[in-house]
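Deliverable D2.4 — example input (structure tokens):
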């Protein structure tokens, strides 16, 4: 004797919505956005940038080097010496090879130090280096 099974809809609240595939997609999208995003890095010191009429906006700078008014160099909230700039920039460049560099020099810092820092950054092979200014 063969048994027949039949589905009966009793009209009850026994039906559940399966949200597992939705959660899987949400988590995959979250991981994708975290991996592909670039985070804003702070130099670690407040800078009073010099004013310039020809200032242009630059986006997606992954390496930010700051020169404070007392001529101290800051990268990623750490003070570094001029001799260490090249090594630190090379390490940051390995993390993001397509990134660019921006030097934020205080208006009271020495321009010679700014030139030396830019030379250290360019010695790593990074040619896209900008100096941050305030637009007048």
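Example output (designed residues):
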């Amino acid at each position: 004797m063969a048994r027949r099974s039949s589905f009966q809809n009793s009209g009850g609240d026994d039906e559940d919505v399966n949200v597992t595939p939705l959660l899987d997609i949400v988590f995959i999208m979250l991981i994708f956005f975290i991996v592909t995003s670039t985070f804003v890095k702070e130099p670690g010191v407040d800078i009073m940038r010099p004013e310039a009429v020809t200032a242009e906006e630059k986006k997606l700078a992954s390496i930010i080097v700051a020169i404070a008014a007392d001529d101290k160099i800051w990268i990623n909230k750490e003070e570094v010496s001029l001799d260490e700039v090249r090594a630190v920039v090379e390490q940051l460049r390995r993390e993001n090879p397509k990134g660019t560099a921006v030097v934020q020099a205080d208006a009271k810092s020495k321009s010679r130090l700014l030139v030396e820092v830019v030379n250290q950054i360019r010695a790593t092979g990074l040619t896209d280096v900008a100096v941050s200014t305030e637009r007048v």
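The domain at 51-135 is CATH 3.30.420.270 (Nucleotidyltransferase; domain 5).
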